[in-house]
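ugh ok fine here u go
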Amino acid sequence: MTYHEQYAIGAALTLAVELPVALLVARRVRLLASDLRLLGTTLLGIALTHPAMWYVPWFFFAPALTPVNYPLYLAVGETATVLVKTLVFWGLLVPHRPWLALALGTLGTAASYGVGLLVWAILAAVAG
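structure:
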């Protein structure tokens, strides 16, 4: 499977996980924003972070993808992802509730990362 095919699967999984997580969190805290606004804000956060996480190291920092550097790349990249998404949610959706912006950014990112690990393990097992 090529890197670009892996990206397409990762992007689809990210959308499939993070959009429902955002809706679930918003309903749980009784957020009064419309679903369309919530989904649009979530999509913007994903659009700003997902391609960068996959393609910036591919083109500019290839050593980051080596097994030795990969844990550091993930820690820095996922932390930056949470921060960017938090700023997007805070600025566009919940300007008076920074804790909710942080929760939306963190829960969606963590959930999609966890599902991604599970799917990659299954694909690796199937590919043998």
